[in-house]
Write a structure and sequence with these properties.
Blueprint: H1 19-42, H2 62-101, H3 122-125, H4 131-161, H5 169-201, H6 204-226, H7 236-244, H8 248-281, H9 286-291
Helix pairs in contact: 4-5, 4-8, 5-6, 6-8, 7-8
Pfam family, one: SCAMP
Subcellular location: Membrane
Organism: Thamnocephalis sphaerospora
Length: about 290
């Protein structure tokens, strides 16, 4: 055919048969495999490389550093002071314990204030945990003295009131006055001083002395609440006699005396139970008391 032109015939051949195309495809395949291997090895996406023309980093301000240094210095100073206070407190506690437990230490008497015969200092001789109870013991002893004085005044009013049917006023006042001296001294030596020594030295013998005589003391206080004529008490019975005969002043003093005796006995019983609990916790026994 004259119109046939071999140059214009398009051969239905494989386009990848061209050597240049095959080389380019092979190069691209190798690059893709390398990229896949790198991605699977690192487990993360590739990050773009920063441009060289990016803004340079600004150095941190020195103001925050100075403030942090000041705070650190203050914290160090506070820690140092706390350590000094803790050390000073420890030394004082050790010194107090050494003074308290030192045998045969002679101290200047400071009690009673008007004529010192004994050294008593709860803050020095009694362990810190037991000081509140011992202070209450001292208040109980002082309270007994106050009740005795009030009772004596009430009995004196019974004496001078000359109520009808009351002929024991002189006896009541005399006994009440003697109680002010004898009970005050006996309570100090028989139960307050022993329990003080018991908490100071933790010896069973002192606890048993306290249990015996403070038990009698509690019974005595409730007995005085009754106010039997001639017993030295302006308690309930004598108070009723005063009020029944119209002796109001003596009756009012008797009412207060009765309330004080009852309150004193109840407070003493409360302290007694606390001491007994402490005695059991410390493991004291009667055998230890006999050994003391």
């Amino acid at each position: 055919n004259p119109f046939d032109d071999d140059d214009l015939i398009v051969h239905d051949a494989d386009p990848f048969a061209d050597p240049s195309i095959a080389t380019a495809l092979q190069s691209t395949s190798v690059e893709m495999e390398s990229s896949t291997l790198l991605s699977s090895g690192t487990g993360s996406k590739s990050t773009p490389t920063p441009h060289l023309g990016s803004t340079p980093s600004v150095p941190p301000s020195t103001g925050n550093g100075a403030a942090n240094s000041t705070l650190n210095a203050r914290e160090a100073e506070l820690r140092r002071r706390e350590e000094e206070l803790a050390e000073r407190e420890r030394r004082l506690r050790e010194e107090a314990e050494a003074i308290r437990t030192a045998p045969g230490v002679l101290r200047a008497p400071n009690f009673p204030p008007f004529y010192p015969m004994y050294y008593l200092d709860i803050d020095v001789e009694i362990p810190e945990m037991e000081r509140p109870l011992m202070r209450n013991m001292f208040r109980s002893w002082l309270g007994t003295l106050v009740i005795l004085l009030w009772n004596a005044v009430a009995c004196f009013l019974i004496l001078v009131s000359h109520a009808t049917g009351v002929n024991t006023g002189a006896t009541d006042f005399g006994v009440a006055f003697m109680y002010c001296i004898s009970i005050t001294a006996a309570s100090f030596y028989l139960w307050y001083r022993p329990i003080y020594n018991g908490y100071m030295k933790e010896r069973s013998m002192y606890y048993y002395i306290f249990f015996i005589f403070n038990g009698f003391h509690i019974g005595f206080q409730y007995y005085m609440t009754i106010g039997i004529p001639g017993s030295g008490s302006a308690g309930i019975i004598n108070t009723i006699s005063m009020l029944s005969d119209g002796r109001v002043v003596a009756g009012v003093f008797g009412v207060i005396a009765s309330g004080l005796w009852a309150a004193g006995g109840t407070f003493s019983l409360y302290l007694y139970r606390h001491v007994h609990h402490h005695y059991r916790v410390q493991g004291h026994t009667f055998a230890d008391a006999k050994g003391d």
